[in-house]
Design goal:
The chain is α/β, with parallel strands linked by helices and 212 residues long. The chain folds into two domains: 76 residues, Orthogonal Bundle (Methyltransferase, Methionine Synthase (B12-binding Domains), Chain A, domain 1), CATH 1.10.1240; 120 residues, Cobalamin-binding domain (Rossmann fold, 3-Layer(aba) Sandwich). It is 53% helix and 10% strand. It is built from nine helices and five strands, in the order ααααβαβαβαβαβα. Helix 3 runs antiparallel to helix 4 and helix 5 packs across helix 9. The termini are far apart. Bound molecules: cobalamin.
């Protein structure tokens, strides 16, 4: 049996090879990918974040944990499949300007993709003009923005204003997320949807498009 505690420890300790190895074992044994992510990997990232906040871990450790999580996630991505028969809708997703965190954003992107959405992932540190251009060019149904810093979350409002200025706001639904975001904040900046995890992000996206 794959040792899920070992996966937790590997991500927490920033050890890429063991993280990938246990994940591979768990997949071979038929473990549920969502359970692997939510049960071991996300709690490990939360713990390293807590240690960082308490001054017990530092940026290099965060980077190593992120690398271990990403490596394991690569194996799970193709398995995050739902009822992907036809495209449910088109989504543009990115992390806002000034913010380099992309693990949660990529997880949301993978889950949406696995559940039938066409996803255009435009990366990290994305300025408003690039969000607007991507929505315009792709004709996306939903724009998803991620922010992990209290200093960058305010930029989401800037992007929404840029959509308004470009005459696109009524053509695209806006969803926001990331650790510092909550429903109240999402409403305050005029977003259409919010979710605190990748699973309910898919449900929210479907709800916004009326395909739930
Ligand atoms: C890994 C990490 C890093 C890595 C990022 C690597 C990478 N490629 O992503 C590195 C080392 C680069 C980093 C850098 C920094 N970080 Co950092 N980082 C983290 C850490 C530990 C984990 C984040 C993570 O990946 N979590 C796991 C994922 C799965 O969770 P998630 O991102 O929250 O995403 C989920 C939901 O939020 C939601 N979601 C996310 N996006 C979206 C979008 C939509 C549309 C929806 C619907 C849902 C959704 O679904 C996701 C999946 O379930 C957090 C601590 C934490 N607990 O969040 C700190 C944290 C975010 N970092 C922090 C800080 C301070 C920094 C730095 C400023 C440190 C420094 N002094 O340099 C820099 C900033 C760099 C920058 N400009 O962005 C602080 C932020 C404090 C604050 N309130 O602003 C935190 C909270 C740590 C702490 N406790 O102090 N960091």
């Amino acid at each position: 049996m794959a040792d899920m505690e070992k996966l937790y420890e590997a991500v927490l300790g920033g050890k890429l090879e063991p993280a990938v190895e246990v994940t591979r074992e768990a997949i071979a044994e038929g473990a549920d990918p969502k359970e692997i992510i939510n049960g071991s990997m996300i709690p490990a990232m939360e713990e390293i974040g807590k240690r960082f906040q308490e001054g017990k871990a530092f940026v290099p450790q965060l980077l190593l944990s992120a690398r271990a999580m990403k490596g394991a996630l690569e194996l799970l991505k193709p398995l995050l499949k739902g009822d992907a028969s036809a495209s449910v809708g088109k989504v543009v997703i990115g992390t806002v300007k000034g913010d380099l965190h992309d693990i949660g954003k990529n997880l949301v992107a993978s889950m949406l993709e696995g559940c039938g959405f066409e996803v255009i992932n435009i990366g990290i540190d994305v300025p408003a003009e690039k969000f607007v251009a991507a929505v315009q060019e792709s004709g996306a149904d939903i724009l998803c923005m991620s922010a992990l810093l209290t200093t960058t979350m305010t930029y989401m409002k800037t992007v929404i204003e840029a959509l308004e200025a470009a005459g696109l706001r009524d053509k695209v639904k806006v969803m926001v997320g990331g650790a510092p975001i909550n429903r109240h904040y999402a409403e305050q900046i005029g977003a259409d949807g919010y979710s605190d995890n990748a699973n309910s992000a898919v449900l929210k996206a479907k709800e916004l498009l009326g395909v739930a």
